[in-house]
Structures are given as C-alpha cells and as structure tokens.
C-alpha cells in the first residue's frame, strides 16, 4: 500500500512540522475566495455517457481564508467555505447546505507558487419542512414523503492543492478535497478552483 | 451585473428523492443485514448471492453516509414474512406466487417489490422485505432479466427497504422505472437521499471521533482505517496549533498586566 504510506508520511511531516512552527509571530491577512466546486470527480469520470451531470455537479464556492505566516516560510490557512447557491429539491422544500472547515498549511515552492495541504471537516446539512409527494409506482401511483427533520453529516477531509500568487492581493487556488482515502468503495474527491482576493 | 451572472452560471440541480414513510430515519442498527433465502428462486443460490452483493456494494459506496449493508443467509419463507412471523429483517426472498401480491398485470411488468415496510414511533424501520418475482411464466420473472437488470432492480428495492421512496428524477436509481438504465449506478440524487437518512458523523466517538473511524469492504465488513485516524489526529493537532497561536504563552517582551 504505497499510497497509504505516502499520505501518512506527507501528513506527518507537514502536520507536525507546522504545528511546532506555530509559536512564531505571524503576520495576518484575510482572503475572500470565490470560484467553482466540482463534487464526485471520480464518479463523473467513470460515469456512462449522459450521466456525468447526474452523478456529480458544479456549484459556486465562497470561502473566507485566513493566512497566518508561521516561521519564515510556512503559513497556516484556516478557512470556512460554503457551496452556493443552496441545493434545492424539485418542490423547493428540500435544501442541502455544504460547508467546509479547513485547517490547511501552505509552503512556498517558488516565489509565486505555494503548496497547500491539511485536514478539514465537511458538514452536510439537509432539511425540509416535510410533505407528501405522489409519484408513479409500478402500474399506478403511491404517496411518498419528503423529510420533516434536519440531517447532519460530518466527514473528515484531506485537502491539497496549489496557490498561484498572481499579485499582492490576488491568488488563484486549485485544490482537491479527499475523503475515505484508503477505502476503494468510499474514496471520493472533489475539486475546487477559486480566485482569492486579499481584504 | 457580472457578479450576478457569475453566480447564476452554476446549475442549481434539484433533487427528487423521497422517503417511504413520514419521518423515516432508517434502520436503527449498523450494519443493516439483509437476510437472503434463495428457495424458489429461478437462479442459483450462488448467482443470487453474487447479485445481492453487487446491489449491496452500490449502497456501501456512499462516502458521506454511515450506512453499512451486509448479507446473511436466511431460512425465512414468503408466507412467514407476509404473516409477520420473521424476526430477522429485512429479507430478500423469491416469491413463486408473486401475482398474488401485485396481480397478474403487475407480475407481467414488475420484477420485484418491497413489502411490509413499517417503522416505530421514532421513525426507525422495524420491518421490510424484498420479494423477487419468481412467478412461473410471468413476463417480469427475474429469470428473464439480464444480470445487470437484476442487480439494478435489487439495488432499487434495497433502497426502498433502507427507507428511500421513489425519486422524480428519471436518471435516479430510485426512479420508478428502469428506463434505459443498464447498471446499478447511484446518482447524486440517490446519494443525497441516503445521506439524509443515514448521515455520517466521524466525530461520534472518542476524542473528536478518533476511535470511531473504520474502513469498509464491498460486502460491508469493516476494519481499522489509519488514514482517517491520522486525519482526525491532524485535526486535533491543528486545533492545538491554533490555540497555541492565538492564546500561546507570553513572549519575554510581553508586558504583565496587574
């Protein structure tokens, strides 16, 4: 399982090293990132023709990201992002809300390129005010129900990517969220491309 | 104006999943074990087991759901199940009198159906079972389906037995008709539906959930997942790092406030 050891060693070296470096005095900055979020990348690539947009979707992404330099090169970049707009059911009652809390570390590869890596949490919230829906069922129709309660799902994520420094106030970020990395069945990757503006 | 257009560039795909009942919260057990009896089936026991495993694998692949589905052997009969005399539920059985349940016209077009779905006052399922059409000479007898169609049909019915109702989206696995689908493929709509009923919480045990993360095989058995545990620990260390950054011990240059 070389992939497993790759991930473990990468996270160990970056994670522990960064935490130890956090005692350094930081210079703070705050970014607003906006861009596109593609979920279920692998399923999209493997889907039969015509099903790509049904197994995954592209949403807008809005994120607030703090940049806290630690030491001379490292930066710790905690962020809170959400997919926009909220996803709605066909009847408008069901809503799905996706939020990411990330504790990412970054390291400069060149003057204009930073490598990003770190853990995070994905929070999925879906809810509805309930109701009945009549749908086809065999050769007749039946009544089904929309949920009348909220549901929360919390999943650990690993985030990695690159930040291209385009200027003193602008960066282009290409990132990937991974979940269930060791599990062939549940392994999932989402891709994010954002343009960051320093406030 | 450009900013508004930018937002609306993204499709707000609707979903159409439903529940089989009001306020259904799925089975109050994990894993959910489907008890299978191949008696009266027009296909062999090994073939049925393989098809059930494939259908189970479909639902076991949802990242954001805690759901784990497994298969076990059963000696339950259709008559016992319909009479409410089976304790190991949900079941998957072959019904040679399928027309009795769905009528002759139904047996000609329905390869399987889910029966006796019931829930307690909290919404947790207490009963459900899938009957496969084994009616001799019936047009929708599963013997006349391709393996892929049988897998797709069974995955759909397992979705019902897990608490999902039909979807209004024609591409969804939980749409009432097979349509042109040829494989048991979950769409985002199906995933949203099952995640709502069986949400995953990786912070449900231990310190920030670090004792509760496991990997999963396609037949639903679980094992230790070191990467997830490491991510969990990294999250704790990250939080610790933030605390140290934000509230760390004073430097020698800091002033005491008396």
Structure write-up:
- The complex is a heterodimer of chains A (199) and B (258).
- Chain A has 199 residues and is α+β, with helices and mostly antiparallel strands.
- Chain A is 15% helix and 59% strand.
- Chain A is built from three helices and eleven strands; from the N terminus they run αβααββββββββββ.
- In chain A, a hairpin with a 6-residue loop joins β4 and β5.
- The longest helix of chain A has 20 residues, at 2-21.
- Chain A is elongated, with a radius of gyration of 20 Å.
- Mean pLDDT of chain A is 83; it is low at 15-26.
- The radius of gyration of chain B is 24 Å and the shape is elongated.
- Chain B has 258 residues and is an alpha/beta fold.
- In chain B, α2 (45-60) crosses α5 (147-161).
- Chain B has seven helices and seven strands; from the N terminus they run αβαβαβαββααββα.
- The chains are: A alpha+beta (199), B alpha/beta (258).
- At the A-B interface, α1, α3, β2, β3 and β4 of A face α4, α6 and α7 of B.
Keywords, separated by commas or semicolons:
heterodimer, A: 199 residues, alpha+beta, two-stranded antiparallel sheet, 11 strands, B: 258 residues, alpha/beta, 5-stranded mixed beta sheet, 7 helices, 7 strands, 34% helix, disordered C terminus
